[in-house]
Amino acid sequence: MGNGSLMDYLHTQGKKPLSWSARIQIAIDVANALEYLHFYCNPPLCHRDIKSSNILLDEKFVAKVADFGLAHASKDGSICFEPVNTDIRGTPGYMDPEYVTTQELTEKSDVYSYGVVLLELITGRRVIQDNKNLVESSHVFLASESRITEIVDPNIGDEYDFDQLQTIVAIIRWCTEREGRARPSIKQVLRFLYESTDPLHGDFVEAVEDEETGSRGRKSRGKNVFFSGDGKCPPSSSSTSRSYCSRTFLLEASPPQSPNNIPSI
């Protein structure tokens, strides 16, 4: 891949810093790949090792999710992952703490790891530094709206969109909730990412939902809702959201095979 892994690009001296818009697009690319795995692959898969070194960047900085050595298929092929007891596999710093404690794997473990990658992406910091993981060391900034600008990678300077930063921080907090059931699906994450980059996308989805369900007067899901009340993101139905997912954001080491042939490991 033309620009190597996201980890190497973020943490190797001498590399040209990624722009804010490039980082947001990488986040969208990875979410697209996970949406495909969780909802459209047959059978659905948990990747189990989402981390920046498994995200590769081509010559145009399109992100590809690679390395499916730890992938685990859903139990019965349904899109709803029932908890599965497995040996703990993954990478320190990115691993879901609930999975480590219970040894029960669901797709929400991938969502947690995605939240860590998103935090690494906007901070430019290593996931484990001085024996502290990035989620812990960033908590004081993530918990305070007045301090969220302090976590932005200094290499970006002031070249970022504050409204998007609010949304990204809210997504990170939501994805890294201690309990998996409190985390969003990757569909919900992707929807909020698209709404942050294109406000018209949110209006389009609202209109489609109203037409399909007959609902009216739905409360707006504007960006400011992310920091209301207890600071948590609201639940969001994604059943009628238009999917932008694509297998093109997955990097396969061999010619494409039927997902049914991928073994459960």
TrEMBL record:
Signal peptide: none
Pfam families: Pkinase
All residue ranges annotated as the Protein kinase domain in the record: 1-204
Molecular function terms from GO: ATP binding; protein serine/threonine kinase activity
Residue stretches of biased makeup (Low complexity): 233-242
Record's keyword terms, sorted: ATP-binding, Kinase, Nucleotide-binding, Receptor, Serine/threonine-protein kinase, Transferase
Gene3D superfamilies: Transferase(Phosphotransferase) domain 1
Transmembrane annotation, as ranges: none
Taxonomy, superkingdom: Eukaryota
InterPro entries reported in the protein's UniProt record: Kinase-like_dom_sf (IPR011009), Prot_kinase_dom (IPR000719), Ser/Thr_kinase_AS (IPR008271)
Region Disordered, residue ranges: 209-242
PANTHER family per the UniProt record, alphabetical: OS01G0750732 PROTEIN, PROTEIN KINASE DOMAIN-CONTAINING PROTEIN
Protein name: Putative receptor-like protein kinase
Native organism: Dorcoceras hygrometricum
